[in-house]
Amino acid sequence: MGAVVRIQRRGSPPRRRREAGDPDVVQRDAAVASRIVHGGAVARAALRPVHLVTLQRMAGNRAVAAAIGPVAPVVPVVQRVATQLVAGLDADVPSTYDSGGGHSYADHGAHTTKEAHVTRVNTGVAPSGRVSRVPPGKGSSKFVSDDKHKEAFKQALADITVKNRPKQKVRGAGNVIGVSGAGTTYFGDGSSSAADKVQLDIQSIDDTTIRINSMYPVT
Amino acid sequence: MGADTSLVQLLVDLGAVEEAVRTRLADQEIEGAEAVPTWLLDMLRAVRDGERDGWIDYSRSTDVDDTNVLDFLRGLPELLPVTYENNEESWLFALPDRDLEVTISWEGSCYKVSRLGRTWDEAPAGD
Asked: Which ipTM was obtained for this model?
């Protein structure tokens, strides 16, 4: 390994290394520790090992400990959730997306027809026969292809997997994601428009398992 | 405290217990005003005030993960005398005590406050 070269600006005095007992360091550490300790249940639940190490180091400093007051012991819970799919659901096969009781494929899959969606807008009867009415002036949507359906779910699944890693219980997704060219929305007069977003309704059924309640393109 | 104050106050006005609301918000990891979309506050305000103005459009961003807020909404029956019906493309909340219901269309990005059982009537207002 090469030697570390320190560059010192000409004319400036060498900077003194700040010590743990320095007033400004104590003040900064006290503020950080206070935010961690007194941040409420949410912050406490989100504590990561690095926070705990930081907290322990800070608590070891008597000046910081005095500044933040008594601290209840924080017990770390480190448990990574591996998101599982409900039985029968295969992320690569859109025709399995309704496993567990949803209607994403049956009512919004690429195989559904324009006529079926126009009928839904005008009568409230979805392609599967389920009743799901549409507000006046609004449309009914379908994915343009199985590949787009799959792209949407895989994107959602990736997001769900990442966001659930530090949690103790898996959570689903109810947000809207962008999927270019995802689908088509049909209106009551037979007209249509492109839909580049997808509404997710992916729910957890236990601590680790999710199912698709619904998922459909939106404009 | 802070940004969620409006949501808490609206739910308290609708009959919820403040502490229970705050506990649920914490459980759902909903913190700060930016976590609660404006349209949701407008909708709850309309419910509280009994305003029935037909379908109201709202917009949602793909940049915001509002899953926790929606999960909170789904859990309203634990806080208020309200029933929840998930029709997938839309959700229906009925408040019998107020003779009101509110339907949120996720597919159409709009909501409507109306008298019980009148969401799908054509009359846009004063139904």
From this structure: 0.89
Q: What would the pLDDT profile of A34-77 be if each residue is shown by its tens digit?
A: 665 554 433 444 444 445 545 555 555 565 556 656 555 555 55
Length of chain A: 219
Model-wide pTM > 0.80? no
Q: How many domains, in total, are found in chain A?
A: 2
N residues, chain B: 127
Hey, what are B68's tokens?
């926790």
Question: Pick from A136, A177, A218: which is nearest to B107 by CB?
Answer: A218
Give the H or E element holding residue B114. Answer: strand B110-115
Residues from chain A that touch B67, judged by Cβ atoms under 8 A, are 171-175, 200
Q: Say if residue A184 is in the same domain as residue A102.
A: yes
CA distance A125 to A123: 6
Residues A185 and A165 grouped into a single domain = yes
Are A119 and A131 spatial neighbours (Cβ–Cβ below 8 Å)?
no
Is any Cβ of chain A less than 8 angstroms from the Cβ of B20? no
Partner residue facing A218 (CB), from B64, B88, B109: B109
Regions of chain B short of the pLDDT cut 50 = 1-3, 124-126
Rounded-to-integer distance, Cα B94 and Cα B102, Å: 6
